[in-house]
Every structure is written in C-alpha cells, then in structure tokens.
Design goal:
This protein has 350 residues and is an alpha+beta fold. It has a single domain (25-346), classed as 4-Layer Sandwich (Glutamine Phosphoribosylpyrophosphate, subunit 1, domain 1). It is built from eleven helices and 13 strands.
Length: 350
C-alpha cells in the first residue's frame, strides 16, 4: 500500500470518531441521574423553572448519595431512592407529572437492574402505582418474573406493599396543556390536508415538541463494594396510543447494568432504543471491543440512534466510576455526585 493510501485510511478513521468533550465524561462518580432529554430550548426555559429543575435533580442526588454513604447502602437502593425523588416531582415525565396518552390518561413504565447478579424487574402500563420504580423492584425480588404489565402488575405491586393512588394523582396542568396543544396541532394539519397518514403517525409521537416526544427519569450508581445498578421510569410519549410501551421497562433497551461493563439509563424516543437494544449495546461495545464508557455511549447515542433518525440521551457509569452523559437533543436534565461528595447539575452543553 502506498503512503497516499495509508494517509487516506488514517484520515477516514479519524473522521469517523467524534471527539468526546470533558463534560461528556468525568471520573470518580458514584451516582448519576437524569430527568429526560425533552428539554425546553435554551433561552425559552424560565429562570424560575430552571431553578426548580436543578433543585429537584440535586435533591435526587442528595437522597441517593445518603443511601450510598449509609452502612448497608447498595447501588440498587441508591438508584431506586433517587428515581423515587424524581417520580414524586411534578417537573418530570415520570410518576406525578407523567405524560398523557391520546385518550388523556397516564400510563407509566419502569425498570431496575442489579449489575452484580444481572437480576432485573420491570412494570409497564401501570396507572395507579405511585412509584413505578418500586413496583419494578418488587417484580425483580418477589415475583420470579422480569416484566409485568397492566392490572396484573398493579395487583402485584399492591400485594408487595407499594403505595397505590387514585389516577388523578399523576395529573398536572402543564402536561394536560401539552396534550391539548399537540391534539390541536394534529387537528389543524389534518383539516388543512398538509400531512398524510405518515405525518399523522409522527404527530402522534409528539414530534413537534421536545417535551412531548422525550422525557423519562433515571439513575445509575456504583457502591463501595464495586456493584453497579441502573433504574429508569417514565410516563412515555405525549399522545402515545393507549397501551403503547416504550424502552424504559425493556431490559437492554432503556436500562442495563452489569459489573463487567457499565450501568445505563436512557431517555428519548423509545422506539429507537428498542430497535438498537441501546443500553445493552453500550455495555457490549465496552466488553467486546474494549471501548471506554464515554466512547461506547457516544457511539450508540450520536451515531447509531442519531443516524437512524432518533433523539436520545443516556447516563452511563462503569465499575471504575467513569461517567458519560452524551445526548443528541438540545439538552439533557442531568447531574452526578463524585466519591468526595461534589455534586454537579446541568441542562445544556457546557
């Protein structure tokens, strides 16, 4: 091979690697959280709402960190605790504040995974369980199953001691208004004939508004014993069809944890995560190709999913405390805490 050919190969190789900035990857992290990739564009998020979102993310970090610092605290306990804090906040698309289906209902999904044993539990299409992430853990530890959905999942959650609430608990005016806006957009475009059947399908996934098509909360953690865990919870897509289930309760798609590689929680357009088996793919790239957590997560989010047309973000953490949070949207509500107790919260690129 002549030198010109060699240089051409090198240039091609370099050009295919996207540089990962310092803000995408940081070390010595024990806990990271996200509040979704459905971020209000920079400049349009009010100072008051931004302050509230940052405070909620910080509260989740504090709660999870307290668990990790307790004598018997585990990564599994920490991610469940952190996600519960986010589920209880009306600011995010999970638990209270969950998105509405086309029919005006809140249908939620969640999953949790233990990196030490690769045990996992998940629930889908639940409407009365206050904290779906705790129901997912109950499925993992008490049912002998991995995934339960609908009435069966809710009955099991109740039997397992999970708090059951009236469906009205999950309703927020902000999410209801968002549904009405998306329904109005669809009706107007149908009336004017500016979209066909394919366009209507896209609108049904909230394609016109980042807060309608994305969302989800999640956490990943590393405890003092070197064990990883991941958890994800969501209200899904605004205007989703009744019974639609996304990636969040599907192990390997929206959630994955294995001490041999990493813990991952994703957010974005779930259909793309499912097709890409995204969370597991990050772990596989690390285990089989030897990529760092930052490179593997970036490959999946900013190449595979993005090239397929999907919007996504993930938080990923390896067993050495290396953390990455790549996203291909206009922002990602996110935060992490390091081994020495330093907490950091961000929304947009830094």
């Amino acid at each position: 091979m002549n030198w010109i050919a060699v240089m051409g190969v090198l240039v091609m190789a370099v050009s295919t690697v996207r540089s990962v900035s310092a803000t995408d990857s940081v070390g010595d992290v024990v806990l990271a959280v996200h509040g979704g990739a459905g971020v209000t564009p920079k400049g349009k998020l009010s100072a008051e709402r931004e302050k509230a979102i940052r405070a909620a993310l910080d509260a989740a970090l504090k709660a999870g960190e307290a668990v990790l610092n307790s004598p018997d605290g585990t990564s599994l306990d920490a991610v469940e605790t952190a996600v519960r804090v986010l589920e209880d906040s009306p600011l995010f698309n999970a638990g209270k504040g969950a998105a509405f289906t086309r029919e005006g209902k809140n249908e939620m999904d969640a999953s949790i995974m233990d990196g030490r044993t690769r045990a996992a539990g998940a629930v889908g299409y639940v409407t009365t369980t206050k904290n779906p992430i705790s129901a997912a853990r109950a499925v993992m530890e008490k049912s002998g199953h991995v995934l339960m959905v609908g009435e069966g999942a809710e009955a099991f959650a109740s039997q397992s001691g999970c708090e059951i609430v009236d469906p009205k608990y999950f309703r927020t005016q902000r999410r209801w208004k968002l549904l009405q806006e998306e329904l109005a957009k669809e009706a107007e475009q149908q009336r004017t004939g500016s979209i066909g059947d394919d366009g209507v399908a896209k609108l049904a996934l909230g394609a016109q508004n980042p807060e309608a098509q994305c969302g989800t909360v999640g956490a990943v953690a590393l405890d003092r014993h070197g064990n990883l865990a991941a958890a994800t919870s969501t209200g899904g897509l605004t205007m989703k069809r009744h019974g639609r289930v996304g990636d969040s309760p599907i192990v390997g798609a929206g959630t994955f944890a294995d001490n041999k590689s990493c813990a991952v929680s994703g957010t974005g357009q779930g259909e793309y995560f499912i097709r890409a088996v995204a969370a597991y793919d990050i772990a596989a790239l690390m285990e089989y190709k030897g990529l760092s957590v930052a490179r593997a997560a970036d490959e999946v989010v900013n190449r595979k999913i993005k090239l397929a047309g999907g919007e996504a973000g993930v938080i990923a953490l390896d067993a050495k405390g290396n953390h990455a949070a790549p996203y291909n949207t206009n922002g990602l509500y996110r935060g992490y805490v390091t081994k020495d107790g330093k907490r950091h919260v961000a929304i947009y690129a830094e």
